[in-house]
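Propose amino acids for all 210 sites.
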């Protein structure tokens, strides 16, 4: 091993200016202030798409057809509920930081996933879809439990944005509020190769399950 003082090259701390791979999921043009998902400009997507369409786009590589969106939305909505045991985990960790609670609950979900050890691309996409559906339920359940309230069960007739607001407040949002939050979710869906993406890829390279 060479001591840092003896190295001739530039030492990069953390991940700044470190390039390890390429991604087509999204692209940030910092100079122009532009964000693209799979080549689509974020302005167009935020104006014309739902968050469910964006999830499909980032995961599958292109925007869904009407039938594909219907099937995908049905799959998301049918997987929003979390097991009672996960709610117990959230109650046990309610004083922790929300990100710590989410991390712990997601890890615990592995015990209830029949495909946990199947790392095929098809199973991985299914697991990713389930986690996308369950994460809002975990976050909102923690928020309510922390405030001394009972969690609100997701409504299978609502999309992800509306369900999040419903599970937080206990009241179904109006269309304007639903759309505002839907756009917020779209804008934050993916930000290229950030630190968390790097960490996920690093762990995945060990053949760890999702």
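Proposal:
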């Amino acid at each position: 091993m060479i001591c840092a003082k003896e190295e001739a090259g530039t030492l990069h701390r953390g991940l700044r200016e470190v390039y390890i791979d390429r991604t087509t999921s999204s692209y940030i043009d910092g100079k122009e202030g532009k964000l693209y998902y799979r080549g689509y400009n974020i302005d167009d997507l935020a104006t014309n798409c739902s968050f469910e369409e964006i999830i499909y786009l980032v995961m599958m590589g292109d925007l869904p057809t009407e039938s594909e969106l219907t099937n995908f939305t049905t799959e998301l909505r049918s997987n929003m509920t979390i097991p009672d045991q996960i709610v117990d985990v959230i109650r046990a960790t309610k004083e922790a930081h929300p990100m710590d609670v989410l991390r712990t609950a997601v890890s615990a979900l592995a015990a209830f996933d029949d495909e946990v050890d199947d790392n095929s691309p098809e199973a991985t996409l299914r697991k990713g879809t389930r986690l996308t559906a369950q994460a809002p339920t975990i976050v909102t359940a923690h928020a309510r439990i922390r405030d001394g309230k009972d969690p609100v069960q997701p409504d299978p007739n609502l999309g992800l944005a509306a369900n999040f607001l419903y599970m937080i407040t206990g009241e179904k949002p109006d269309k304007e509020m639903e759309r505002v939050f839907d756009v917020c979710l779209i804008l934050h869906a993916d930000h290229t190769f950030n630190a968390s993406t790097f960490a996920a890829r690093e762990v995945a390279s060990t053949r760890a399950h999702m």
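The first strand starts at residue 26 and ends at 29. The CA atoms of residues 9 and 26 lie 30 Å apart.
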